[in-house]
Specification:
The structure is a single chain. The chain has 398 residues and is an all-alpha fold. The protein folds into 2 domains: 186 residues, MFS general substrate transporter like domains (Growth Hormone, Chain: A); 200 residues, Growth Hormone, Chain: A (Up-down Bundle), CATH 1.20.1250.20. Helices cover 78% and strands 0% of the residues. The protein is built from 14 helices and no strands. Helix 1 packs antiparallel against helix 6 and helix 1 crosses helix 7. The chain is globular and about 55 Å long. The two termini are 42 Å apart.
């Protein structure tokens, strides 16, 4: 007899937690290893950059396809395809004869990854029901834990047993996670009667989602600027890259409990508060000289990160139509990746002209002003309507 009730629900929650952790562990564990491995294949500098960045580029282009698949065929099949495809691609990283073959498998890895995020977060929200705010908070915390532990584990395994061993280990983790998902996680999706009626770009006509996507791009733009400029800033001041890594790890460490324990308060106000904290930190990072000051500011940055990240996912789930939740998360990650990619590009272009952190803070403040102003306008319209007065035309939230 199939297991049901609280026991099955608890097992499903644990398997989804494993899927979140393993899915992001895969990405973070490769960060310190992949450039060195590509170089060992005889790659030139531009080939190393291509091999590292092609994953993000392909993922950016294919996210909408992954979201559409989650809305048409359900949440579970794309997840299984994603984990099994990633296991196949990563497992062959260590057997490639040249850098070009590695790039081919990086593209396959990215194609599989494009099906991961939209299906995963739609499934988490639907399985959690009324506890979805709590579930999104825990998911964000697991992402933060993966970001903390995966790079040192990946580096240590590659140093002790070689990069191919790390690749095989990650592939086995992905394959085992796919098996757990297949056996333990039921589907939550009712297939649409007419798949041609699913139009992902229609989501851009929902003002709240447009606001969330703008906030997401500003948030990850800051993250991209920080990833590019912060290690260079510390090096100029006489610190090592290890110090930069430790401070970034400290930021993630602070963000994890914020995401895990502030689970009930998810609103656009919380998101804008977190974004304001991040903007303030970016504005002062390039001006403070002492290490203790950097530690304090990066800790505060972690609080802002912890406020923003899970709220973006929860609000996307809440405001997306049920038949377009996969596509809504796909677009969220298109804007997420766009900010990550554009941040370093802009920071590199303005270095020597303006402090990158100041530019990032300015961009964030502009987004906060636009989104906050829109919400105030909506509030005035709703108040006027409640009083039986006319106050322009309301922009519907959905």
């Amino acid at each position: 007899m199939a297991q049901s009730g609280p026991g099955r629900e608890g097992r499903t929650a644990w398997v989804l937690a494993v899927a979140v952790f393993v899915g992001f562990f895969d990405t973070f564990a490769l960060l310190p290893v992949l450039p060195v491995y590509v170089h060992s294949l005889g790659a030139e500098a531009w080939q190393i950059g291509l091999a590292v960045s092609v994953y993000s580029l392909v993922g950016l282009l294919m996210q909408v396809v992954g979201g559409y698949a989650a809305d048409v065929v359900g949440r579970k099949p794309p997840l299984l395809v994603s984990f099994l495809g990633a296991a196949f691609a990563v497992g062959l990283y260590g057997a490639v004869p040249s850098v070009w073959w590695l790039i081919v498998f990086r593209v396959l890895h990215a194609l599989a990854g494009a099906f991961f995020l939209p299906a995963l977060f739609a499934l988490i929200g639907e399985r959690a029901g009324v506890r979805r705010a709590e579930a999104m908070g825990y998911a964000g915390a697991l992402v933060g834990i993966a970001a903390i532990v995966a790079p040192p584990i990946g580096g240590a395994v590659a140093r002790a047993w070689g990069a191919p061993t790390l690749f095989i280990g990650i592939a086995l983790m992905m394959a085992m996670t796919a098996l757990l998902l297949w056996r333990s996680v039921p589907e939550t999706f009712q297939k649409a009667v007419d798949p041609s009626a699913i139009k992902p770009l229609a989501l851009l006509r929902i003002p709240m989602l447009v606001a969330l996507y703008g906030v997401t791009a500003a948030f990850t733009f800051c993250t991209g600027v920080l990833a590019y400029g912060f290690p260079l800033l510390l090096t100029e001041r006489g610190y090592t890259t290890a110090t930069a890594g430790a401070l970034l790890g400290w930021m993630a460490l602070v963000a994890v409990p914020v995401m895990a324990f502030l689970r009930q308060w998810h609103s656009l106000g919380r998101t804008l508060l977190g974004l304001s904290i991040i903007a303030a930190c970016m504005a002062v990072l390039w001006w403070i000289p002492e290490l203790w000051q950097l530690v304090a500011v990066m800790g505060i940055y972690g609080v802002g990160f912890g406020l923003v990240f899970p709220s973006l996912h929860f609000l996307t789930f809440e405001y997306a139509p049920p038949t377009l939740r996969g596509s809504a998360f796909a677009l969220l990650y298109v804007f997420y990746s766009g900010g990550i990619v554009s941040g370093p590009l802009v920071a590199g272009a303005i270095t020597g002209i303006l402090p990158p952190g100041l530019v990032a803070a300015t961009v964030v403040c502009m987004v906060i002003g636009i989104v906050g102003g829109w919400r105030v306008w909506e509030g005035r319209i709703r108040w006027a309507q409640s009083q039986g007065r006319s106050f322009g035309n309301s922009l519907p939230l959905r």
